[in-house]
Design goal:
Strand content: 15-25%
Structural class: alpha+beta
Strand order of the largest sheet: 1-2-3-4-5
Number of strands: 10
Largest sheet: 5 strands, mixed
Radius of gyration: 26 Å
Order of helices and strands: HHEEEHEEHHHHHEEEEHEHHHHH
Number of domains: 4
Helix content: 40-55%
């Protein structure tokens, strides 16, 4: 439907421009015609723009609602997009909650709330039945998203813990069941936990996923152990917080060296989080993923406290960061130590340098802050 709305002459050109800009952001091209191609080399929507002067440009849109980005999916699209005859001025990953891209370059995350904003702007340029129907559908989905975050009773139903009988949320409950959106809304709730943890500035990669039919929040980074890379961090699923380590990239069959590296990182995690020596990590099940269960059990009411989960996750990751630093952070620390030592050496020799090489005195003073 989105591709049709962007190209359909049933909508005015200003309406289609407003919808596209809500997703893609400001565009260098002010298009006269707008054309779309669906499933272009597996990309959901390729939008072709043509300016009044005849200049062309493209916008790529990958649209996810229930699914997540596949392994290196956006990076693969990047390789295909370079073959186009005109520049790609925007790349959009449209998903229910605005998932951050896990691969690729310069992809812009957009949520259904952003899509609804674009549809509202398009309607302002003139009503259309198809546009109004699609807008009503997206508005209902956005309402379900907001409800699962702000209503503990509704969240309990979405996570299968408690049925909702009647009340203002009953209609949304029925809608979720008909559309099979339960796991999608679980991921939306977990995405809100991720957002409140405010981890974007702390170099942790974050994503919401699905495992065994249940939503999963994943917070991770990669550490180097010799020639091997080990991905480690924290996951939240089924009200259980676990600290984990796994070989990276995730192998189909784990080697003995990868097992030993994972074991070593688990020992570091144990020390960082104060996990008892008697606690045993899970078995690797052939692929090397192992974890410790951490955190206390929560009551039914405590389980749906989004802010509390965010604080606990942020605190746990801060403890792990101090123990397992990424290579660039190790290099940064080593550089800082080297600079400190050099500054001290220069300061101790300042007076002798001033006596023997007075022309260096101003530069030396600036270097050591004297």
């Amino acid at each position: 439907m989105l591709a049709w709305l962007l190209r359909s002459p049933a909508l005015s050109l200003p309406a289609r421009r407003a919808l596209l800009r809500a997703l893609a952001g400001p565009l260098d091209v002010d298009p006269t015609p707008i054309a779309t191609t669906t499933e272009w080399r597996d990309l959901d929507i390729l939008v072709e723009l043509t300016s009044p002067a005849g200049d062309a440009a493209f916008v790529a849109i990958e649209h996810k609602i229930k699914a997540r980005e596949g392994d290196a999916q956006l990076a693969a699209y990047d390789q295909e997009l370079v073959s186009l005859s005109a520049p790609v001025v925007a790349k959009v990953l449209l998903s229910f909650v605005g998932d951050e891209p896990q691969s690729g370059h310069s992809w812009r995350p957009c949520s259904y709330a952003d899509l609804l904003d674009g549809l509202d702007q398009a309607v302002a340029h003139g009503e259309n039945q198809h546009l109004s129907d699609y807008r009503a559908l997206v508005r209902r989905l956005v309402a379900c998203h907001r409800l699962v975050v702000h209503s503990a009773a509704y969240a309990r139903h979405v996570f299968g813990e408690e049925a909702v009988d009647g009340g203002p949320t009953a209609g949304s409950v029925n809608y979720v069941e008909r559309c099979r959106l339960r796991v999608t809304l679980q991921r939306a709730w977990l995405a809100e936990v991720t957002r409140r943890a405010q981890l974007s500035e702390r170099r942790w990669s974050t994503k919401t996923d699905e495992s065994n039919g249940v939503g999963l929040a994943d917070f991770a980074r990669v550490a180097h152990r010799g020639q091997l890379r080990i991905r480690y961090g924290v996951q939240l699923q089924n009200w259980q917080l676990k600290a984990f380590a796994q070989p990276w990239p995730y192998p189909k069959n784990v080697s003995d060296g990868e097992r030993r590296a994972v074991e070593g990182v688990l020992d570091e995690i144990r020390d960082a989080l104060g996990i008892a020596r008697s606690a045993r990590a899970t078995a690797d099940r052939g692929r090397g993923f192992r974890s410790f269960r951490i955190g206390a059990d929560r009551t039914s009411r405590e389980r749906y406290d989004v802010s509390s989960w965010a604080v606990e996750i942020a605190r746990t990751l801060a403890s792990l960061k101090g123990c397992l630093m990424a290579p660039n952070e190790v290099m940064s620390l080593a550089t800082s130590v080297a600079r400190l030592r050099l500054t001290r050496a220069l300061a101790s020799d300042r007076h002798s340098v001033r006596r023997t090489r007075p022309e260096l005195s101003p530069k030396l003073s600036r270097c050591v802050g004297a």
